[in-house]
């Protein structure tokens, strides 16, 4: 994998960890997740006029992705309500690339080299190691996390293919971001009432704008990288976001770091090095 691709995916991982921290810190995780999705759409709007439309073959992928993204944001909020971030985040993010690595040969006909496969598995092992330090959790949290890992793997495939056939990965990403917030806010209004939703938006719009811009930029960088490198290796390298999440948890949330956090950090860094050398 070229160095410029690695660096941009790592920057995207930092942005991903940042918007997840915004959701975790929020008082209403479902509405904050919807706000971040909406913030991504708002951030995308000014650029659409300057980019070509995705090729017609990519539009079905955009529609399917929107539905999967709706499920993803709902599950993120539910999982963070049910369990500790030390359990939920590693399970969601660590299992997804393992699923992709195990199935990409069949679905995408991408055969990973031994080095790329070793790097992918090493990064995933490091991420999953963090689950060992979780002090709170439940069977519900585990079930929600594993379900979301399947959703993440599914939309990664959909968007990886869609970005490749769209003709422009950035354009695909921006158009793809428009529909999920419509679905999320429609659902929230039907469950909470329009007044309650509007009140939360009025008080927390800035959180959605900041987090949404980071979210769309993070995913756009990943989709661009998938046009330059195998989907499975990009998906695995993106999970180095957990390292940035660790720094945020210690410096911002003042969480105590167990030995497992440092072990996982070393293992993830080693996996990144293996990917670079593969």
Automatic annotation (TrEMBL):
<protein>
    <recommendedName>
        <fullName>EamA domain-containing protein</fullName>
    </recommendedName>
</protein>
<dbReference type="InterPro" id="IPR000390">
    <property type="entry name" value="Small_drug/metabolite_transptr"/>
</dbReference>
<feature type="transmembrane region" description="Helical">
    <location>
        <begin position="6"/>
        <end position="23"/>
    </location>
</feature>
<feature type="transmembrane region" description="Helical">
    <location>
        <begin position="30"/>
        <end position="51"/>
    </location>
</feature>
<feature type="transmembrane region" description="Helical">
    <location>
        <begin position="141"/>
        <end position="158"/>
    </location>
</feature>
<feature type="domain" description="EamA">
    <location>
        <begin position="141"/>
        <end position="274"/>
    </location>
</feature>
<feature type="transmembrane region" description="Helical">
    <location>
        <begin position="259"/>
        <end position="277"/>
    </location>
</feature>
<feature type="transmembrane region" description="Helical">
    <location>
        <begin position="170"/>
        <end position="189"/>
    </location>
</feature>
<keyword id="KW-0441">Lipid A biosynthesis</keyword>
<feature type="transmembrane region" description="Helical">
    <location>
        <begin position="87"/>
        <end position="108"/>
    </location>
</feature>
<keyword id="KW-0448">Lipopolysaccharide biosynthesis</keyword>
<feature type="transmembrane region" description="Helical">
    <location>
        <begin position="57"/>
        <end position="80"/>
    </location>
</feature>
<feature type="transmembrane region" description="Helical">
    <location>
        <begin position="232"/>
        <end position="252"/>
    </location>
</feature>
<feature type="transmembrane region" description="Helical">
    <location>
        <begin position="114"/>
        <end position="134"/>
    </location>
</feature>
<dbReference type="GO" id="GO:0009245">
    <property type="term" value="P:lipid A biosynthetic process"/>
</dbReference>
<dbReference type="Pfam" id="PF00892">
    <property type="entry name" value="EamA"/>
</dbReference>
<dbReference type="GO" id="GO:0009103">
    <property type="term" value="P:lipopolysaccharide biosynthetic process"/>
</dbReference>
<keyword id="KW-1003">Cell membrane</keyword>
<keyword id="KW-1133">Transmembrane helix</keyword>
<keyword id="KW-0444">Lipid biosynthesis</keyword>
<dbReference type="GO" id="GO:0022857">
    <property type="term" value="F:transmembrane transporter activity"/>
</dbReference>
<keyword id="KW-0997">Cell inner membrane</keyword>
<keyword id="KW-0812">Transmembrane</keyword>
<feature type="transmembrane region" description="Helical">
    <location>
        <begin position="209"/>
        <end position="226"/>
    </location>
</feature>
<dbReference type="GO" id="GO:0005886">
    <property type="term" value="C:plasma membrane"/>
</dbReference>
<dbReference type="InterPro" id="IPR037185">
    <property type="entry name" value="EmrE-like"/>
</dbReference>
<dbReference type="InterPro" id="IPR000620">
    <property type="entry name" value="EamA_dom"/>
</dbReference>
<keyword id="KW-0472">Membrane</keyword>
<keyword id="KW-0443">Lipid metabolism</keyword>
């Amino acid at each position: 994998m070229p160095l410029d691709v690695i660096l941009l995916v790592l920057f995207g991982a930092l942005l991903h960890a940042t918007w997840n921290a915004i959701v975790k810190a929020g008082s209403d995780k479902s509405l904050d997740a919807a706000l971040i999705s909406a913030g991504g759409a708002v951030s995308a709007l000014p650029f659409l006029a300057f980019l070509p439309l995705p090729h017609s073959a990519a539009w079905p992928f955009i529609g399917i992705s929107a539905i999967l993204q709706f499920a993803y944001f709902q599950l993120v909020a539910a999982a963070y309500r049910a369990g500790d971030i030390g359990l939920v985040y590693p399970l969601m993010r660590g299992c997804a690339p393992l699923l992709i690595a195990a199935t990409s040969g069949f679905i995408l006909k991408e055969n990973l080299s031994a080095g790329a496969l070793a790097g992918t598995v090493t990064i995933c092992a490091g991420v999953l190691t963090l689950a060992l330090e979780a002090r709170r959790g439940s069977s519900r949290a585990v079930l929600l996390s594993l379900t979301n890992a399947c959703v993440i793997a599914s939309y990664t495939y959909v968007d990886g293919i869609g970005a490749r056939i769209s003709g422009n990965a950035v354009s695909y990403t921006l158009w793809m971001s428009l529909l999920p917030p419509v679905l999320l806010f429609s659902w929230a209004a039907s469950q909470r009432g329009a007044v309650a939703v509007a009140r939360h938006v009025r008080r927390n719009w800035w959180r959605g704008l900041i987090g949404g811009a980071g979210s769309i930029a993070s995913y756009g960088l990943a989709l661009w990288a998938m046009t330059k490198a195998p989907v499975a290796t990009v998906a695995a390298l993106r999970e180095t976001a957990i390292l940035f999440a660790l720094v945020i948890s210690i410096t911002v949330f003042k969480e105590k770091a167990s030995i497992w956090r440092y072990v996982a950090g070393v293992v993830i860094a080693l996996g990144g090095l293996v990917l670079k050398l593969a």
